[in-house]
Specification:
heterodimer, A: 114 residues, alpha+beta, Arc Repressor Mutant, subunit A, 3-stranded antiparallel β-sheet, B: 291 residues, 6 strands, 63% helix, 12% strand, globular
């Protein structure tokens, strides 16, 4: 079930799990994602809440403590394993596309310089 | 002397949530901030014109009977509050958040997820309307069958109801198609201007009210006594009061209680039918007295 739903992680999921390599709570996760993605990815509180609930249900993250209503989470071994698989998948995509896309990029750069 | 309060009907479809957002922001810039949200009306209060940002969202697993006071919903609102969004209220399936912080990230930032929830909410709504409308169409067609003709006011009402249902479903599926194309092309959901949405929806409401008077006008043309016209008018008042009671009942179970969706459904339909029966008994007693 987890593998079907998270067959490939969206950017938001990917960065959220990356942010949860260290224990974080809600608002901190959002800030960490923005920092890790250099401002490219911003997660809204509603989306954050929904994804945290799904990750927890799939045992990809676990709650470490609950201070008032502030819940702290960290990624589990299962979550790390899925992240590694996703990382390898992305590397394979880059490796396979490099011969074509790097060439195109070089041509475009030469065209611009001329 | 300028009015301090305005009550405006919230005639926006579920998939017009971004249009409602645009309308609320327009009102704030023109000196009216949203004070509270009812089942039908939006309550605005006069204020200094200012920029207030709104988010209008459908929750996960949307249901008209879902309580707003469960731990899950409270935690969701706390997440939003921590991110700078305060909660204004709920109208139908639409939850309204607001902030004056220009840097606050939107409440929901996954357009695909927003699209799924809107579709789930609309389809749930449509199933209910389909059942109610088909019952009414069937009853009217049965009357036509007894009269051996479709060319009567029952036939006219059956055609109108079927047409209204088809139009309502057609609108949603057209939006759904546009949304799928827009998501593929630009990763965003389509949004019509709030002016266009309001104009269309107000037009539909006015037409519905006009057509609902058809049986009354038809009967007035043929009735031999004012009593029958009074009975029909009384029937509309009965329906109006019952709808008001059901609306207040739904608000109460959603806002004051934290029961499960199924419990809320049982309470709503149980008490609603009981209220309908009591009001109906009173209405019938009044009819017998009049006639």
């Amino acid at each position: 079930m987890a593998r079907e739903q998270f067959q490939s992680l969206s950017e938001q999921m990917y960065y959220m799990l990356l942010a949860l390599w260290d224990t974080q709570c809600g608002a901190d996760i959002s800030r960490q994602v923005t920092r890790l993605s250099q401002g490219r990815i911003r997660i809204g509180p509603g989306t954050l809440y929904t994804l945290l609930a799904r990750f927890e249900e799939q045992k990809m993250i676990r709650e470490t403590e609950n201070v008032g209503r502030r819940r702290y989470y960290v990624i589990t071994e299962k979550g790390k394993e899925m992240m590694r698989e996703e990382y390898i998948r992305l590397q394979n995509l880059i490796r396979d596309g490099s011969p074509y896309l790097d060439q195109e990029q070089d041509s475009a750069a030469q065209g611009q310089s001329q | 002397m300028r009015k301090r309060h305005r009550y405006v009907p919230g005639f926006f479809q579920i998939y017009e949530n971004d249009s409602l957002k645009g309308y609320l922001e327009f009102m704030a810039q023109n000196g009216w901030r949203l004070k509270s949200v009812g089942n039908v009306f939006l309550h605005f209060e006069a204020c200094q014109p200012r920029r207030i940002r709104y988010c209008v969202e459908v929750m996960e697993k949307p249901s008209a009977y879902a309580s707003n006071q469960t731990e899950k919903m409270k935690t969701y609102r706390e997440f939003c509050r921590d991110a700078g969004w305060d909660y204004a209220g709920i109208i139908g399936y639409l939850h309204i958040f607001y902030t004056e912080d220009e840097n606050a990230v939107l409440v929901e930032t996954d357009p695909g997820e927003r699209y799924e929830r809107i579709c789930q909410a609309c389809q749930g709504n449509m199933r209910m309307f389909f059942v109610i409308f088909m019952m009414l169409v069937t009853l009217n067609l049965y009357s036509c069958y007894l009269k051996r003709t479709l060319l009567c006011h029952n036939g006219f009402i059956a055609v109108l109801m079927a047409g209204a249902l088809a139009w309502s479903m057609g609108e949603f599926y057209m939006w759904k198609g546009r949304a799928q194309r827009s998501l593929e092309k630009s990763g965003t959901l389509p949004c019509i201007s709030w002016r266009a949405a309001r104009r269309k929806n107000y037009g539909v409401v006015v037409l519905t009210l006009m057509f609902s008077l058809v049986p009354l006008v038809y009967t007035a043309g043929r009735a031999s006594s004012w009593a029958l016209i009074g009975v029909l008018a009384g029937l509309w008042i009965y329906i109006g009061i019952l709808m008001f009671i059901c609306s207040r009942l739904l608000s109460w179970i959603r806002e004051k209680r934290a029961y499960s969706r199924w419990t809320n459904m049982v309470i709503y339909w149980g008490l609603g039918l009981a209220a309908g029966a009591v009001l109906g008994a009173g209405f019938l007693a009044w009819i017998f007295r009049v006639l």
